[in-house]
Each structure stands twice: as C-alpha cells, then as structure tokens.
TrEMBL record:
SMART domains listed in its UniProt record: IG, IGc2
Name the UniProt record assigns to this protein: MALT1 protein
Native species: Crotophaga sulcirostris (Groove-billed ani)
Alphabetical list of PROSITE patterns matching this protein: CASPASE_P20, IG_LIKE
Domain Caspase family p20: from-to ranges: 308-436
Annotated Ig-like domain residues: 75-164, 185-270
Length: 711
C-alpha cells in the first residue's frame, strides 16, 4: 500500500529518500537512487519497495519512518503505516476488575506484544496516573474511594496506540457487613508464607520452585517466566523436568483470590551446561602404573573410538528475497537427514533462514559440541561465495549487493567449533565458490588452532559454480545425488568423499557393453564421470585428518549416555505437540494431529471423528495462524497432502489418518511465544441450507525447533 502511494513524482519515494537522508546513515547515494528508479522497468518493480529495503538494511525503525512521512506532509501514507503498527500491538494480559478491603494493596496488570519500544500509560478515568508507565499498576487503598475507580492502560508505539479494556476497583471498609462476612480477621487478604528461591542447575536437572500462601478464600496461583505466564503452571509448586537453557530466566508467582492478589519475589534461574562425556576405550588401553606381566604378551589393541554423541546441523536456503530461487536444498537436506539418522546422528534440519536465524542456529549447534562429541557435521545448501580463501553462506534476507557483513563466514564457524574440542569437524558445503565482486573486505577470522580433525567437502572447486539437476520436483543437487550413494559406507570420511568424487570402477557405473544394447545404463557412480558437469563442477576435498574416523563409528551404548544434557536438549527440540481431541457444543469431536517435515516445518491436520446424526455436514478448518510465520494460505486446509505444495508429502503422510484437512506451517524458528491458532468448525443440519460456526482457540506451546528460542 505504501508503494502505491509513493511510486509517483510528487510527494513520493524521492522526497522520502531526501527527508530520511537528513540522518547521515540513511542517506542514499545517486547510484542507489538510480537503482530504485530503474525498478519501474521491471514487470512488478517498485522504486518505493527498493528504497524501503535500503532503509531496512540500515536499521531504520518504524518510528523514524513514520516521522519522515509526517514531515513530508503525506497523511495517507502516515495513516497506512500507523494502522499497520496499531495492528501489531496486541494486548496479551488484560487488567481485571477487583473488590478489595480498605488498606490493601491492589495490582493491575496489562502486558502487550508488538514492535520494540512499547510505552505504557495508566489512566484513572480520563486522568493520567502520574508515573504509572509500567505494565503493572500498584494502588494503595489506605484512603478509601467514594465510588469505584475505573482504570485503563494505553499502549503506544510512537503516535500509534491501543487501549486495554476497563477495570474497576471497589474498596470496601473493614466494618461493612458484606466485606466482613465469612472472613477470619487474622486471614484478611493474602499472605505468602514461603517465597521461591533462586537456583542454578545443569541441563537435564529438574527445576522445582515453590510459593505457599494463606488466605480466605483459598489462594490460587499462576507462575510467570520473564513476565509471561507459564502454561499449565497453576499450582503452589512449579516443577519442570529435564531442563535446558530455554528454561532459564526470571520467575515469579502471582497469588490471588476473589478479593486480593499479591506477587512473590522474582528469582533468577540459571541453567548451565551439563556434564560432558569423553571418548571411551578398553580399560587396559588407558590405565597407567600397572605392574608389567613377566611373560611376553601381544600389544594391546588400538583404542575403540566410541562417541558419546554425533550431531549434525543441516541448513537449506531456497526462497531468497532478492536472488534466484533454488529448488534442490529442500530435497537435499531431507535426504541427508534421513541417512545421518541411520548413522545415529542427532540431526536438526532447517529451511530458509535469515542471517539472525542462521547465527542463532549455529550458536545452538555449538552448545552441543564439546570434547565428548565425536563428530560435528555442518551441511549447507544455498547461495554462497568465496573471497580470499574464506567461504560465505548467504542467508535468504541478504540484499541484492551483499557483502560479508550480510553473510556467515564458514571459517569463523570452524574457529568456534575448534574451541568446543569436538573430535571430528566436518563441513559439507553445497554452494558456489565464485568470487563476490561487491565484497573487497578481508574478514579478520583469527588464527585457527592446529588440530588434525577437520574435513571440508566442497561441492565444487574454487571460483566455480555448483549446479542443480532439473529433473522434476524430487531432484537432488549434483553433490548430494552422489554423496547419498556412499554416505552409509563404513569408510574413513576422506575415503568416502574420494569415492563421491572419483568412484570405483565397476561398482556402479555404466553397464558392461557386453550386456547388450537392450540393457539399461546405470547412472554414473561419481561426480567425475557425469558428462553434463564435466569441466564445470568437481568435488574438492580438504582435510588434515590423520586417524581413521568414519561417520559409521559407533556411539556409546544406550543407557550410559541417557543423562547427557545435549541429548536431552536436542531431543526436546524435536518434540511434536501431542494429538488431541476438541469437543464442540454441537456434539462434534475433532481430532487435531501433527507431523514434522523438517525441524522448522510442521504439518497440522484436522479430522472429524464424531458427529451427531442430525448434522448433515461439518468441516474443521485451521484459522488465525500467527502472521509472522511463513504460511501460504493457499497451502492450508487442503484435502490431501499432495495439495500442500511440498514434494516431500509422501514421506510424512503415511502416518496420517485419511479424510483430513492438512495445513503446512513453515518458519517455526520465528516463534517468539507459544503457537496459538483457532479451529473453526462449520456445520449444517439436515434440511437447513445455512452453516453454523463454532470456534475454539488452541495453544500447542513451542513445537520442534521453536523450543530453542532462535527468534
């Protein structure tokens, strides 16, 4: 809408660029303005869209943009932006009306979500309450009010605001019959007897916080973490098993009854890393100071390299905002994740990440690497480049002329992995390695440690491109096409990658000419014999590996590693919400189920499992999905998995029941709070043409990768 209003020569995008450029960091060069103006030559190009993108890359805020539009004297554009901001401000916790006794303290709470920098202001009637600019308003009722006081909270961002609902506070004198009836004088109000205590735990421990209170009527409880209510935590004791770093924060308990409320003290809960395991070997191999046996004996066997963990992070970027779209990363990441799980790797597979999300995903990956981890594997498929010997992975939000500042440097990731002392560091980079002419900065990566445990498998050589095979929706990229044929082989990792590059004669190449012309030709076994990429793409292997280390090396037997904190955190980030049944007032029961396509892509399906006889037809549809998730509405509430637009539907739909409506939710890493949506039931009775509608709001917590709080 802003583009429609500003793509003109009057009070348009050029004037916005001039007004915004008053602040030096937002000033656009002549070349950038020329680039914006040339957008009119594109079929759907917009100079305003290009300008807004330039401002966004320089961290221009909504507040500053709104101020620029006001100085331009463009009320229509101001109204569009203000309405958009207002729609982003949502009251999550509304203040509640209360009846309290004279002399008690009253607390009203209003909490909202929206753009950064929300400002709160409380009002009593039409008058501002001086200094009341916090989400919580505390009122002293020592001086009784002559009539109920009405309070409301205004939440604003710049000149845009929204109001909470009204809450009224009625103060009753202690001597009034209505307030004294049923009260024990020593128990008037609420009193906390036991406060929660701060604690420091390791990952995998059990968190226990307790808050005990007395009152009449009996108190009720609601626990909060970082000022947000904890779902289902409505008992005096809060207990969370198998904690991870996602549970750390500030905790408090809201204690209340019909007449009063009080807050416990706020306590900090620190969650550190759990104990780390190391490689195991036969005791005789590592024992020291044993008495020598007088008779000769054979040399002890070599240590058995057994891993306490093998972890992998797979990232595939496809839907770039300013660059060519790719097709193969989805299928490549899925194929590798399936194979690596067969090798007992803990795998997280993510699609379409912006820079901040890639950084957070890598940081969480690094938390799981340490001396006890045998292998850490990072696979990336997407756009990339190589400058001055450093490789860069390009996120989906990289601007049209990106530099190293917009990308992730692989060598910096390696340096961080080395600090974690992982036994084997493997990088599989399925990306181009052409030089980026827009980037002439030499990044200061720092000196790498001298370790013999690094393997780089590049899909192509330096200053060359990596290609996809366009053979339908399920085609892999060329690198993974050959890699997946050898990945399960019990070979040293460098030998395995050599086979991908060069293959073995007679293992799986062209058929024997003696077999006759009617025999089908098998595909080449290695990249080197693929005719269409000969001279254009060839795998490059870099390694300083000295020992024989393979992806197939065994992990510690089950049971001895069950307390591993990293295992618990990794597993917790892959838990789907439990299937549940929703019961509607009309007598219809709807099953709500879930399936995972990737660690950040979830399928939700609805199915009517019970229906009264007087209802002729009914359907349960998914609505009110959070706007910040990557959800294409044309891929929601479909009658078959194949209609969701994913070529991988067949891989997860086998476990789903029939006669469902399917919806595909992408970008779960963007979740900043628990996932909530609405199930809309539409049904029609026999002999009636009109449909009736019932709705139920459902919250499923933070599913899959959202538990790692990457947003």
């Amino acid at each position: 809408r802003l583009c429609e209003l500003l793509d003109n020569a009057g009070r348009g995008w050029r004037k916005l660029a001039k007004v915004a450029g008053v602040e030096k960091r937002f000033k656009c060069s002549e070349e950038e303005l020329e680039m914006c103006s040339l957008k009119v030559l594109e079929p759907h190009g917009s100079p305003t869209q290009c300008l807004l993108q330039l401002l966004a890359e320089r961290d221009c805020t909504l507040k500053y943009l709104l101020g620029c539009l006001e100085r331009m004297g463009h009320p229509q554009a101001c109204q569009v932006l203000s309405t958009a901001v207002q729609n982003m401000i949502r009251i999550a916790v509304q203040p509640e009306s209360q009846v309290v006794r004279e002399g008690a303290w009253v607390s009203l709470t209003c909490r909202a979500s929206g753009p950064p920098g929300l400002v709160y202001q409380w009002f009593c009637g039409k008058q501002e309450v001086p200094g009341a600019t916090a989400p919580e308003l505390v009122i002293n009722t020592t001086t009784p009010l002559s009539q109920p006081a009405w309070y409301i909270c205004r939440v604003s961002c710049g000149a845009t605001f929204t109001f909470s609902r009204w809450a009224h506070v009625r103060v009753e004198k202690s001597s009034s019959p209505s307030s004294a009836s049923g009260y024990c004088p020593t128990m008037a109000g609420l009193q906390i007897l036991r406060q929660p205590q701060p604690c420091s735990l390791a990952e995998g421990d059990t968190l226990v916080l307790e808050c005990r209170a007395i009152g009449n009527p009996p108190p009720q409880y609601q626990w909060f973490r970082n000022q947000c209510p904890v779902e289902g935590a409505q008992a005096p004791q809060l207990q969370v098993k198998l904690v991870t770093t996602a549970e750390r924060g500030s905790y408090s308990c809201h204690v209340f009854n019909l007449f009063h409320e009080v807050w416990s003290q706020e306590v900090d809960v620190e969650i550190g890393e759990g104990s780390r395991q190391t490689f195991v070997a036969p005791q005789s191999t590592w024992s020291r100071g044993q008495q020598e046996c007088p008779t000769p004996s054979p040399a002890p066997p070599s240590p058995i390299l057994a891993a306490t963990d093998k972890v992998a992070l797979l990232i595939g970027n496809m839907h770039y905002r300013h660059h060519k779209q790719l097709k193969a990363p989805m299928v490549d990441v899925h194929a590798l994740s399936t194979l690596l799980r067969q090798l007992d790797f803990k795998v997280v597979s993510l699609l379409d990440l912006c820079k901040a999300e890639m950084e957070m995903a890598v940081n969480e990956f690094l938390l799981l690497l340490d001396k006890g981890v045998y292998a850490g594997l990072l696979y990336y498929a997407g756009h990339g480049y190589e400058n001055f010997g450093n490789s860069f992975m390009v996120p989906i939000d990289a601007p049209s002329s990106y530099t190293s500042a917009h990308c992730l440097c692989v060598q910096q990731v390696l340096r961080s992995m080395q600090r974690r002392r992982t036994g084997l560091n493997i990088f599989l980079l399925d990306m181009c390695r052409k030089r980026n002419l827009n980037d002439d900065v030499i990044p200061q990566v720092g000196a790498l440690q001298v370790t013999a445990n690094i393997v780089f498998g590049y899909a192509t050589c330096a200053d060359a491109e990596a290609y996809e095979l366009s053979q339908g929706e399920l085609s892999n990229g060329i690198f993974v096409t050959f890699l997946k044929r050898w990945l399960l082989e019990d070979e040293k990792i460098t030998v395995l990658l050599d086979k991908v590059a060069e293959g073995e004669w007679g293992a799986e190449g062209d058929s024997d000419p003696a077999s006759g012309p009617c025999q089908p030709l098998l595909p080449p076994a290695d990249m080197g014999t693929l005719e269409i990429t000969r001279g254009r793409q060839a795998l490059e292997l870099r390694s300083n590996l000295s020992e024989r280390r393979a992806l197939t090396d065994p992990i510690r037997p089950p049971g001895q590693d069950e307390s591993s904190a990293r295992n618990l955190q990794w597993a917790k980030a892959h838990v789907l919400p439990e299937s549940r049944h929703l019961h509607f007032d009309c007598g219809v029961t709807v099953q709500l189920g879930f399936a995972a396509e990737f660690s950040n892509i979830m399928i939700i399906y609805t199915r009517v499992v019970a229906m009264p006889k007087d209802i002729a037809k009914c359907e349960a549809r998914l609505t009110d999905i959070p706007e910040y998730l990557d959800v294409d509405l044309k891929y929601t509430n479909k009658e078959s998995p194949e209609e969701l637009g994913s070529p991988l539907a067949a891989t997860w739909s086998l476990d789903c029941p029939s006669c469902c409506l399917y919806s595909r939710l992408c970008g779960l890493q963007k979740l900043q709070q628990e996932l909530a949506f609405t199930i809309c039931l539409q049904y029609r009775y026999h002999g009636v043409d009109d449909f009736v509608e019932e709705r139920q709001t459902v919250s499923v917590g933070k599913p899959l990768i959202a538990k790692l709080n990457l947003a």
